[in-house]
Amino acid sequence: KAHRGKCVVIVGEFQPPVVHALGYAINEALGNRNETISFTQPLEAFPVDEVQSIRDLTASMNAGKVKTLLILGGNPVYDAPADLNFGEALKKVKTRIHLTAYNNETSIVCQWQLPEAHFLETWGDTRAYDGTVTVQQPLIAPLYGGKTAIEILAALAGNAGKSAHDLVKEYWTARLGENN
């Protein structure tokens, strides 16, 4: 009580709902909301049904509606639900491009394989489940001159030649200002 609005009660994530409710009630009674704690909307990176999305893509490929497909990482020929026969559908796409660090089932079906940079050698950003944003910086020097997904997408958007570092810096500088 002596530290109202300057303290916090934290409940472990694996505690039952009743304990979370109790922790919330205590924080409310202490006046901690908007002082030492704040709540954010849950973040859902891709608010779609992923299985339905790949089903729709497979149906579009089978119907001849997809002329070019750029696959950024992953291995959907191997990972997609078996009943979709994604690999056979992918063969119906005229231009098939795969950004990947490995030869795998998907890269074998694609005509173009772009060398993907290892995640430890690149710049990026990410958002945690609680909404916290952070910048990812390389831990190792570039190994083989691979490209990142953001570099490929930037090139397609007309910003060819910009490094992942420059793209991440420009994005966050525009939102937070030069001194942040």
Description of the molecule:
- By secondary structure, this protein is of the alpha/beta class.
- Helix content is 34%, strand content 13%.
- The protein is built from seven helices and five strands.
- The chain has helices at residues 17-29, 50-62, 76-79, 86-90, 105-109, 149-156, 164-176, and strands at 68-72, 95-100, 112-115, 124-127, 133-136.
- Strands 1-2-3 form a three-stranded parallel β-sheet. The chain has a two-stranded antiparallel ribbon with strand order 4-5.
- Strand 2, helix 5 and strand 3 form a beta-alpha-beta unit.
- The mean pLDDT is 91.
In a few lines, what is going on in this structure?
Helices cover 34% and strands 13% of the residues.
Topology:
Blueprint: H1 17-29, H2 50-62, E1 68-72, H3 76-79, H4 86-90, E2 95-100, H5 105-109, E3 112-115, E4 124-127, E5 133-136, H6 149-156, H7 164-176
Parallel strand pairs: 1-2, 2-3
Antiparallel strand pairs: 4-5
Look at the helices and sheets and give the structural class: alpha/beta
Average per-residue pLDDT, rounded, comes to 91
| Total DSSP helices | 7
Spans of at least 5 consecutive residues whose pLDDT stays below 50 are none
Number-wise, the strands total: 5
Head-to-tail CA distance between termini: 35 Å
Strand order in space, largest sheet:
1-2-3
* Helix share, percent: 25-40%
Rg over CA atoms, rounded to whole Å, is 23 Å
Oligomeric grouping of the chains: single chain
Give the biggest beta sheet.
Answer: 3 strands, parallel
Backbone shape? extended
Spell the H/E element sequence: HHEHHEHEEEHH
Strand content: 5-15%
